Structures are given as C-alpha cells and as structure tokens.
C-alpha cells in the first residue's frame, strides 16, 4: 500500500480552507492539515463591515455554514476529515526536509510536521502609514475578526462620536458606511485625488458626492501626516496640509500587502510586486509548494501582466485549483483575473471590471475609446433607478477592455454582464444585439448594458461626437464659451440645472427655434439633457441642418460630477 | 437635390416606433411616417400586468418617456420629426405601386400613401381556443391597452370574486399574479403537463408549487373544453376532463400568432412557422420591405433554426436594425435570439436562456449533460435567497447550451450571466474560474453561476454521479429501494424531510457510522441533503471507503418537486 499523501495548508481564512476541502474531494486518502494562526477558521472576512454596521447581529454567522454549523476544528474533522489546528503559527518552512515548524500561540508548544505538498495561504497584512502616533490606542484596521469585534463593540457602546477612515478604497468606503450607520461622524481621507481607484475620476467623484450627501465627510488629495494623542489615546488625525481632525477612532484602510515573510525566508521566488510568484497551476518556484489568495501575484487576463488582486472570490477559486493539483498532480490551471470589483456605498453601488481608462492608458493601450451612459436600470413605472456606466473599448477592434458602473440601480448585474463580455472577448458589435432576460421588473426593453454598447457604436461610427463633462468644465473654466444647449423641458430646467451659461431649448421646440442657435455654423455647440438622449437627438437635428461642430455631453446632467447651480 | 426618402412604418407599439426613431437618427432628411391602428403609441405592453396588479396606478406611465412626456403624435413630430397617424389601419400594401392604403378607424377616412421603404411591425394576435362560448362577455386577453384598461377596472371595482387564467405561460403567470393581488380567486389552467414551457418540468413544478403556496390554483394537463355562460355572460370554464370552474372572468393567454395578414395578402414570403420570413437585415422577400417584432420569424443562434420569439427586447433590437437599413442601405444585421426569457412569479422569479433539456433533445442534441444546483445567491448573513439552476451543456465540448433558474433569489443576474456565456460561446472550463463582481451584498464568494459550472465539471469528470429527483421518485414508485441517505442534521430532518424511506446519517457522523450502510458494497446508495453539497461530500467519503454505486440527488431537498412528508 502506498503511503498516504500529506498535504499541509498554511492559513485558514478563505483560500486555505477551500484548497483543503477541494484536496479532500479529490483525494479521499490523503492526510490534510490546516495550520491556522487565528482562533477562527474560514471567516467570511468580506462580511466584517456589514457585521460592524449592524446589517446582522449574530457574529457566528461569519463563521458558520449555510445551515448554521460553525466551521471549527470539530466541523473540519467530522465533515471533511481535515485536521485544523487553530492558534497555530507556522514559524518556518524547511524545503529541504519538507517540514514546517509551528508554534501554538496560546500554549507556546512547538513542533514540526513533514509534508508532501504544501499550500501557502498566508493572506495579506494591512498597510500602515509610516507616520508618528501609529501606535496610539484607538487606531485599527478592519482586517481580522478581532478588528471586527473591536469595531462592533464601538458601534454597540455608542460612545465614540467622531472617527476618521484613512483610505478611500473598497474597505475604507465599506467601513465609512458601517460607522456612519452607527451614528458616528465620519471623515474619509484619501491621499489620491479620488475615492475607489478602480473607477475613473469622474465616476469616483459621483460616488464621493453621494457619500457626502449621506453626511460623511470626504477629503481627497490629502494624506495623513500624524496621529495625535493624549495619554496614549488617539485624539486627532493631522493631515499633510496641516488640518487637524479631532477623532477618537481611526480606521486605517490604505490597502494590504501580500504576507510573504515565511515564503521569503524559505527562499521561494517573490515577484516584482512583492507577492509570491506562482505559475498557472498556482505552484511556487518549489514544485511541492503551492500558494493561493492574497499572498500571490496573479495574471491580469487583459494585459498579461502580473497584478495584486486581493479579492475573496479569487482566493476561493485559486484555492480550488491548488487543492486539486496538490492532491493529484498538476492538472488544472487558474487563468488569472480581470480585476472585477464591487462595493456598496450607502444607497449606491460602485463596480468595475477590466481596465479603467486610467489603467488602460497606464499599461500602454493608446488607441482606446470611452463612452458614458447614464440611464435607468428598469422602467420608471417599476421604480427604475439610475445607472452611470463608463465603457472602455479598443478603438480599432471594438473589443471591450473595461466597464465601470455606479448608481442606486442594479450595478451588480451590469458589471457581471460586462465581466462575462470581457471573458468572452466580445466586441461592441457582439453586444449591440445581445439577448438578455427582459421583463419590466428586471430591466428596460433594451438593457442599460446594451444601450451603453449602442452609444459606443454611435460614437465609433462618428455619429455621436461625445464630449466629457471634464472637457466641458475645462472649457467653462477657460472661458472658451461654447454654445451650451440644454434640451430639457422648462420644468426640468427650473428644478435642476448646471448654470454654466447654458441656453434652454427643449428638444420638442428645437426645429422651430433654429434661429436662436449660433449664426456661425462652425461654432462649437454642446448639447445635453438629463442623460443626453434628447441631447443626442438635438445634435443630429442640428447637424442635419448645417451646423458642423456639434457635440453631446456624455451622460448629461446625471453624470455631471461638479457642483450645479441647482 | 435628391428627393427625400419616404419611409413608412406600419405599427406603433414597440418595434415600429424604434425603427422609425432609428431611421430618423440615421437619416435627418427622410420623411418618416408611422401608421398605427390603436389610439396609443409606443405602449410599454410588457408593463400591462403590473398596471393591472396595482404595482403602479398612473396609466400614463405606460405611455410616457422617462421624463414624463406622453409619446403621442405631437411628441413624435416635435421631438423626432416623425409623423405618427394613430387610429389608422393599413388595409393594403401594393408592392408594385409601392403604396399602402389606409383607413382611419374613427373617421372612416381612407387614403393611400407611397413609400420608398416600408417597415412592417404589425405584431401578433392572441391565440384563442376554438371552443364554444368564446364570445361570452367576461372573456379577455391581456394584449392591448384596452385589455389592460378592462382588467385594471375589474381590479379597481373589486366585484369579481373568481377568475380563470387559460394558459400557464409568461403572460398567464403574470396575469395570475396581478389578479391574485387584486383579491380575486384564481385558477390557472394549462393544457400541457407544466407551466412556463421555457423551463424543464422539474423546475416548472417548483414554480407551480410556489404559485399554489400563494393561494392560486393550478391545473395542468387539462385544457379548456368550453366557456359556459348565462345571458351572454361567462359563468364558468369547463375543462376537457369535465370539471367546471365557476368564474366571472377568464383571461386567455395561450400565446400569440404573428399578425401577417397584410403581408400575406401582399404576397410576401411567409415562413413555415407562419411568421414573416426575413433575412439578417430584417428584410422580407421584397427588398423594399422590412419586417420586425412579433410578426417575424427569427433565427435561434444555437440551433440555426427559425423560431417565433415574440419578446419586447428583440422587437426593439430588430426595429433598430431595420430602421438603419431602411434609412440608408443594408448595413447592419440582426444575429437572432437565444430565446432568453424571464418572468416574475410572486416572490419567485423564473428565467431561461438558450435551450432547455427538452428543447435541446427536440432539436436533435443527443449528447448533452445536465446538472441542477440549488444554493443561495448571497451569504446567509446578508439575507441570501435560494436559487435553483439547471444547466444544459454539450457533453463532449462542454459548451453551454442553456440554463434555467428559478427561486426567490436574484435570478435575473444569473440568467444574464448565462446569456452572456452562451453568446460568448463559452464552455464549462471557461466559466469555472470566472471573475465576477463579489461583495457580500451581491453574491457568494463563489457565485451560484460559477458553482453551477463547478458541479457540472465534477459531473463531466465523473466525480459526481448525479441522479435527478425524477429518477429517484421513479425508483421509489417502482419499489426499487435504493439506500437513500439524508446527510443533514437531526434538527433539519425534524423540520423538513422527504419521507421516501430515507435514512438519516449526518455528514459529520458518517465516517463513524459506516457500519450502518449497506454491507453489499455494490448496492445503489443515493445521497442528498438540503442542497446536496453535504450529499456530495458523503458520496465521496463512501466511494473512498469502497462503495461502488453511490449517487447524489442533484439539488437536494430544495429542488425536490414532489410532495414531502413534512
């Protein structure tokens, strides 16, 4: 009888347990052991902000299966025949001897254990700003169950009045919402000029406006200079521009770094982004060692370049791949990521898949075309809500490179559709006649996703000459004075308007009021309406009547990120 | 100067106005005229059931733009420079003279009008059963604005107590819900053995169970024999098996037929399905005549065969294609349909895209493989709701042929994902590592869609030996006595169970209780749990310990369509 294969998994959060479970399903006879530093196993860490925010109250829901069984060592041994040792930190990997040394962090007990295959799932460590005061009481991250407990207690105690969230990324925004819901006055500070860098600036600005409308403060373009305190306790956050924000709590969410200490000490190859280097089998430079989750570098499927993509869904998928390969032989591969992400932001959702315009340009795509579509997710009579989508495509081939979507509408479905389009390598032409599930409770007859492709097609064919809100604002600031034509109704104009020197001529009256338009048929005219559909029709009518330089402001007023007159 | 092109559109509901609007955007100088038989234009006819059901009360919302402007002739002329003649029935198309004859159905006025390009968008007519009594007062369809008004008045009057819906398709189910919500006792009768034929039987049965749980009656496998009445008024519906159902209202929803009368009289080619035959440009057998919407036959993109697909979204997309071709020259094409459909059913949603198992077999796919996945759309702590998906793939290539999904969860997103996968010609291997938008408010870390592909992959690789609920039930009926193993907890078993002779051994205790399993290692063992994930793990453990004939009942109890013991 052959000896049982021994598979050791270091890390028991997301990728590790998934790898172990998959290994068990593939290999019934293997000995499978999870070594987990924390007290808990298989925590739903992406759920922490919702626990902190009071979306649910039973902490155990973060730790249990769908039928309410806690995923503790007893569960793992009984249900999966996997030995899980918690509170057990691995202190060394000896690749020559194929052993790991470990230490129980409660009892101090140490030991070593041999392996045939090792799976490293050590996750990530939160980045901390290197500023004075970082050790003060009242500063935390939201990375561990302990952090979640700490913040949830703060919520329940209801004593803290002011908090600062350092970092305006996914976790920062989710934490902001959670604490704001707890009645704490929040300020989010972000070093970069925008929140949520998976979005381009103009969409991020719309999200920022929404966050502010919910009562939270947002400060961008301004990093943290110091944490200030008294008697060891945080009292304020000092910004790089000198501003001091009094607060009793600061949550640092400026990103995470792959936790590669063990792997590095064991001499495994580390990539240029300082994550573990793995091949398509999730195998490290040592063929007996696999690595998965936040600690690895992953291929971006669009650019072919390595990226850090610390997302829970990828961790699980990678775990499944490594688990199977470790339990049999290299037979399944992980294709990489298109960096799909999504984030609830109060009543908005913000999501992205593929490349943003900024990201595409950064990696060298030069011939790209973008478009913005603002329109509802469902008919008005079914309570449709606004979506603002920005689509990025290759100008020559029409291949979809990326899409971002924000708004109170069903963003998740939109992003899922774009993600599948990108993974199917679809072009705009493939999407314009897509057959999607239509009924009024779920979408418009032509879904927002398809309409976005239609607008892109019109732009690619030169029919729609788009101009971005940013370009229009630049013209206003530089007193270029294009002829700005708002094509909505007087009632709409009275209720809400940009106030940047625009003239109101409702679309329905336009053909009778051409004489109010510039005599100079070559003068630049910029048309828009609420979402710029009427704006587009106006532009076509003007072009059909001789004006030669007519543009449509993409997304209309709904995608205007700047302050409005009303 | 060249003469203005004259484009006439017959039909003003969905496809017609879209064709006209697109033609205008492509050709600013053309003369564009819509001839519409009804009084209204561009009605959101898919919204009728929701108006009838009281989902909204403002009738005008079915007829107005997103900003509240009614799409009447005034709107069309002012905003789009399109002449729309309502109450105007086209009585003849003279292809030789290139004219249409029309008649105002209010004034009786007649006339003829020449065209350069004609677009036929005459829609469909509801099928009516050829049974006695069909002329009785109290029998209606839900096809027109007039029908919607009639049923809405019935709802508001609150006098009618009992109604029968004849036909259990999309419109039948939507109507059932609308009237049920109005407090009317409803019976849906369906000639076929199931509701919603875009689903396979076992999923349709789960929907039927849900409809019944909402208090509506459902009678399948039983058609209508006669409408019975007194003094010209409906008093009952008589079924083919002799049952009489007393009722004051009957809504007939047994499908629609392409309205091809005009086209047929004009000698245009009609297809074998008795819809207008069109090419990829939406062009009829007469090059100057296009046709769009419910009146045409469309290509099924998976089978390459013509189908009738009377859906509002396709009508709009086809209208857009025909509008552009008619306004310029044949330059854009419509690729066909994958017959994606969706339907709200009280608290459930039922959707389908591509081929059902039944449909796939009917068109000759012989080497197919199917799988059922029952699991939630989101984590339990975020209020996740059940989804039951049936996936159909080509067994050899793994290409996705179709997917159906039902349940209280986010079915619409699931179906959209499958629809994009089918349109991208993706295989199961392409989907197992899909990168989709994950955050707890929106999905599980591994989305239900991906999990479905995982289960399919396990089945294709022979790891999961699936058995359907129907096969299990057949064995029970035939007293075959397989060893039925329920792997849930005693608490779950106490709360809900099939009661078909199963033995309860919780997964966590299984490895210690192997002695309770059949001594004969070749005996058929069928494992399941709530959703059959634990059932699968149990099956693997049994196989790992020598049992050779172990199956997993797909979808577990959640996908069991028959009555349960409790």
Tell me what the structure shows.
2 copies of one chain form a homodimer. Chain A is of the alpha/beta class and 566 residues long. Chain A has 4 domains: 190 residues, FAD/NAD(P)-binding domain, CATH 3.50.50; 116 residues, 3-Layer(bba) Sandwich (FAD/NAD(P)-binding domain), CATH 3.50.50; 114 residues, Enolase-like, domain 1 (2-Layer Sandwich), CATH 3.30.390.30; 94 residues, Rhodanese-like domain (Oxidized Rhodanese, domain 1), CATH 3.40.250. In chain A, 27% of the residues lie in helices and 24% in strands. Chain A has a 5-stranded parallel sheet with strand order 3-2-1-7-18. Chain A has a 5-stranded parallel sheet with strand order 9-16-10-11-12. In chain A, helix 1 packs parallel to helix 8. The radius of gyration of chain A is 27 Å and the shape is globular. The interface between A and B is large, with 108 and 107 residues.
């Amino acid at each position: 009888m052959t000896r049982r294969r021994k598979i050791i998994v270091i890390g028991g959060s997301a990728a590790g347990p998934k790898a172990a479970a998959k290994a068990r399903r593939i290999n019934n006879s293997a000995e499978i052991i999870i070594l987990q530093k924390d007290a808990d196993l298989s925590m739903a860490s992406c759920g922490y902000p919702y626990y902190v925010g009071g979306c649910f109250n039973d902490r155990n829901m973060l730790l249990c299966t769908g039928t309410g069984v806690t995923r503790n060592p007893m569960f793992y041994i009984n249900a999966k025949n996997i030995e899980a040792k918690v509170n057990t930190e691995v202190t060394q990997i000896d690749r020559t001897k194929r052993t790991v040394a470990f230490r129980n962090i409660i009892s101090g007990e140490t030991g070593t254990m041999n392996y045939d295959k090792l799976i490293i799932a050590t996750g990530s460590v939160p980045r901390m700003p290197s500023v004075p005061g970082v050790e003060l009481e009242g500063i935390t991250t939201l990375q561990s169950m302990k952090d979640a407990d700490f913040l949830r207690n703060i919520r329940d105690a209801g004593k803290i009045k002011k908090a600062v969230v350092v970092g305006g990324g996914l976790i920062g925004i989710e934490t902001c919402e959670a604490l704001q819901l707890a009645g704490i006055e929040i300020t989010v500070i972000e070093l970069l000029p925008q929140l949520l860098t998976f979005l381009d600036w103009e969409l991020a600005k719309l999200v920022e406006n929404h966050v502010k409308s919910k009562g939270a403060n947002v400060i961008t373009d301004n990093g943290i200079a110091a944490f200030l305190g008294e008697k060891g306790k945080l009292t304020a956050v000092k910004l790089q521009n000198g501003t001091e924000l009094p607060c009793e709590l600061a949550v640092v969410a400026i990103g995470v770094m792959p936790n590669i200490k063990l792997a590095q000490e064991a001499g495994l190859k580390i990539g240029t982004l300082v994550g573990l280097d793995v091949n398509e089998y999730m195998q490290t430079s040592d063929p007996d060692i696999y690595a998965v989750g936040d600690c690895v570098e992953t291929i971006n499927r669009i650019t072919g370049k390595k990226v850090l993509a610390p997302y829970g869904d990828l961790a699980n998928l990678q775990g499944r791949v490594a688990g199977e390969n470790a339990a049999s032989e290299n037979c399944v591969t992980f294709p990489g990521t298109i960096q799909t992400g999504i984030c609830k932001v109060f009543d908005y959702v913000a999501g992205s898949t593929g490349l943003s315009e900024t990201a595409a340009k950064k990696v060298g795509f030069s011939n790209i075309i973008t478009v913005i579509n603002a329109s509802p997710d469902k008919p008005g009579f079914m309570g449709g809500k606004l979506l603002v989508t920005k689509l990025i495509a290759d100008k020559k081939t029409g291949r979809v490179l990326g899409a971002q979507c924000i708004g109170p509408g069903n963003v998740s479905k939109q992003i899922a559709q774009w993600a599948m389009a990108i993974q199917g390598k679809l072009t705009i032409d493939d999407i314009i006649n897509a057959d999607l599930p239509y009924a009024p409770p779920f979408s418009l007859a032509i879904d927002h996703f398809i309409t976005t492709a239609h607008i892109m097609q019109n732009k690619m064919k030169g029919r729609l000459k788009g101009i971005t809100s940013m370009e229009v604002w630049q013209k206003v600031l530089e007193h270029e004075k294009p002829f700005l034509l708002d094509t909505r109704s007087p009632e709409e104009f009275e209720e809400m308007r940009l106030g940047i020197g625009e003239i109101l001529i409702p679309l329905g009256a336009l053909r009778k009021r051409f004489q109010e338009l510039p005599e100079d048929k070559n003068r630049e005219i910029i048309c828009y309406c609420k979402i710029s559909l009427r704006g587009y029709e106006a532009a076509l009518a003007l072009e059909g009547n001789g004006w030669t330089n007519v543009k449509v402001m993409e997304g209309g007023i709904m995608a205007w990120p700047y302050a409005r007159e009303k």
